[in-house]
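Protein: BioF2-like acetyltransferase domain-containing protein
Species: Kocuria varians
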Amino acid sequence: MREFTARFATGQEMAEWDSHVTANPSGGNLLQSEAFAEVKKDHGWKPVHVVYEPTDGSQPSYNLVLEKSVRALGKLWYMIKGPDVESVDDMPGIVAANERFVAGAAHGVFAIKYEPEILASDYASGVLARCGLVKSFQIQPNDSTAVLDTDMDEKALLKSLHSRGRNAVRRAMREGCEVEQVPLTEENMRAMYALMDSVGQGNAKVNLRSYEYYRAFWNNFADRGQGRLYFTYEDGKPSVGAYVIAYGNKGTYKDGGSKPRRRQYGDSHLVQWSAITDLKQDHGIVQYDFCGTPPSDQLKNKEHHYYGLGLFKTSFTKTVVDYVGVWDQPLSRAKYAVWTNLAEKVQRQLWVRRTGQPFY
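Structure follows.
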């Protein structure tokens, strides 16, 4: 087991945050980014920047922590999509480093929620449980997700797609479907939000945040050259939209929407193909995350609320990965018990009632 020390990032490190995160052991995650930290800062969370340094002198790990102050309990830390570690075997060292950190410079934290992108397995769960971590509920929609390897030329990439996706892309091309990367004007962003509000809301149970949240999110990533919006049209109006992000060498299909009962077959597939090939050309992505499917063992379960989304995304790739999900580190057992048994439910209800937005 490797040992780690934990500290707050310096001002210089925070100024160069994205370059540090994308150099992490597994390449970082867009939800650890500077752009995302700016979004959450305006929606009830305090961004905290934490650095874990292995005592053997190897590569450090830079991680965004979202902090929420809870009356009478102290501070809750949510390490969204982190920590970024080489393997689950590094987690005992991270957990021990945080115990020392909270006893000193990070005083007042009563619990930490971890959400590492570590592949799920009995072994991984065993390691996390032996660290004293407690399995918690899913927060992000991509604890299971479809991932496409894009580290090949365009011809080979198209050939690598699942036949359903490949045939849909080719048919849309033959029939003259056109996809455009469009600027983030107010009109285009509102059109995108309207498309998101019409896609699969009944079965997918997608809880949309406010338009203002998405506008800030989209602009924050676009301003840094990381995010872009794509449309295809029907009768002169946007009929399919996708907002995608390049962060480091990874691409992500972050937000999508479409008009129901469209005439053009394969239009949504061609939007994705256009985004993927553009991100390959402009950013050199080697992986594209479709951001959320049913777990790999439930892909054929028609009752799963992500079944329809999973059907579309796995028409590109059959590679569906399951991550270990959220695990909590209680730093004060008494306060953590109050939080999980009562305070968290109350806090979430009050937040939703006051803002209409999800708590996390």
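Remarks: The chain is about 35% helix and 25% strand.
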